[in-house]
Each structure stands twice: as structure tokens, then as C-alpha cells.
Design a protein that fits this description.
Layout (H helix, E strand, L loop, with lengths): L2 H12 L10 H4 L13 H14 L3 E6 L3 H12 L3 E4 L14 E4 L6 H5 L3 E4 L3 E3 L4 E4 L16 E8 L3 E2 L2 H7 L7 E3 L4 E3 L5 E3 L6 E8 L2
Parallel strand pairs: 1-12, 2-3, 2-4, 4-7, 5-8, 7-12
Antiparallel strand pairs: 5-6, 6-9, 10-11
Pfam family, one: LUD_dom
InterPro entries: FTHF_cligase-like_sf, LUD_dom, NagB/RpiA_transferase-like
Organism: Streptomyces olivochromogenes
Length: 215
């Protein structure tokens, strides 16, 4: 008898006395979970997002729509970036004030080529305030997943308040589960058994988030 047969046999014995007309499992369990904690206003939700992003060691910036291009230019200059990879559908005006080499997100591009790029600029699908999480879904203004994993510096633009939700349940209701979702909570980091934190191991060492209003 295989392990599979053994397990299925145990399941059948456990269900032997369950009536055939018993309430289906998906209806028997009450799933009235909270969709958010507390009754925050829109402004408070955005503030919570900024607070939790910073708690994860992301660098948070706020600006109006007409300040976005100079803000991004300043962040690239402050990081010393001379090249930046861009998703194909990113608004060109976002980089209008930047004098850096623009590297397109190409299917034939290699990880070695991306590793030589200083920064990446993307939008996001949405941001979750309670967890300080950015979610990318590979949309035209976000590009392929790899462009946000290889370069050492990621600038992510979040449109507020439209792209900000309070909780994970609210996020899941708005996301398409068939898309390649990337959930980002702060810059890449890991710790060894002695709890020594090392950043930049599995993705960007520096994550900068721009909360832009008025878009």
C-alpha cells in the first residue's frame, strides 16, 4: 500500500459517518472576517502606509503630480544613478527632468545587463497600508518582475489615494490572481542565525516610494 492510499483510506474512514446531505465545507465555516482594522479616513490610511513603509526601511517621499518628475530626478541624482531601466508603459513625463541613460525593459535582456543598471523606476498595482506592502502585477507601467529584483535601487510610484487600500483582504478583492503578483514590504533583506541583517540579497538594497497626489 502506498502512502497515498494510506492517507486516502484515513480520510474515507474519518468521513464515513458524515451524511451525504451534510452542509458543504465552504458553507459550514463562518468567514465573516474583518476587512480592515479600525475606521480610518483616507488621509489616515495614507499616513499609515507611509509609517509602515518607513518601518520596513523604505525611504518615503510625498509630492504633487506636477512635482513628480523633479522628485524622481532628485532621487536618481541623490543615488548617483547614471542609468535606469524603465517599463515599456511608464509615463515618459515621469523622467522628463532626468538626464540618465534609459534602458528599456526588453524580453531578450539578460540579468547581467540589468545588474549593470543603477536604478529602476516603476508604478505599482496598489499599496496596502496595514502591512506597508507594495504590490506589482506586471502591468505596462511596472514591467517584468526581474527588473525590480536585479537593480540595486528601486523607485516605486504610488498614486494616492486611488492605489492605497487598508488591508490585505481589500487588496485581494482588487487584484487579478492570474497575473504575476510581486509583494514588496521594504528593501530586500535577510538575517542569519545571529540576527545580523544583510540588505540587497534577494532584490534592491534601496527602496524609495513616492506617494504622488493629484494624478
Amino acid at each position: 500500500m502506498s502512502s497515498r492510499d494510506l492517507i486516502l483510506g484515513r480520510v474515507r474512514r474519518a468521513l464515513a459517518d458524515v451524511p451525504r446531505d451534510d452542509t458543504p465545507y465552504e458553507q459550514a465555516i463562518e468567514r465573516g472576517y474583518l476587512r480592515e482594522h479600525g475606521g480610518r479616513s483616507v488621509e489616515q490610511t495614507v499616513d499609515l502606509l507611509a509609517e509602515n513603509l518607513a518601518d520596513y526601511r523604505a525611504l518615503v517621499h510625498r509630492c504633487a503630480a506636477d512635482e513628480l518628475a523633479p522628485t524622481i530626478a532628485g532621487l536618481l541624482a541623490g543615488h548617483g544613478s547614471t542609468s535606469v531601466v524603465l517599463p515599456a508603459g511608464l509615463d515618459a513625463q515621469w523622467l522628463a527632468a532626468s538626464e540618465v541613460t534609459r534602458v528599456p525593459d526588453r524580453a531578450e535582456g539578460t540579468s547581467g545587463e540589468l545588474d549593470r543598471v543603477d536604478s529602476v523606476v516603476t508604478a505599482c498595482a496598489l499599496a496596502i497600508a496595514e502591512t506597508g506592502t507594495l504590490v506589482l502585477d506586471g502591468g505596462p507601467d511596472q514591467g517584468r518582475r526581474r527588473i525590480t529584483l536585479v537593480p540595486d535601487h528601486h523607485i516605486c510610484v504610488v498614486r494616492v489615494p486611488d492605489q492605497v487600500v487598508s488591508s490585505v483582504p481589500q487588496a485581494l478583492a482588487r487584484l487579478d490572481p492570474t497575473r504575476p503578483l510581486t509583494w514588496i514590504s521594504g528593501p530586500s533583506a535577510t538575517s542569519d542565525i545571529e540576527l545580523d541583517r544583510v540588505e540587497g540579497v534577494h532584490g534592491p538594497r534601496t527602496l524609495e516610494v513616492v506617494l504622488v497626489s493629484g494624478e
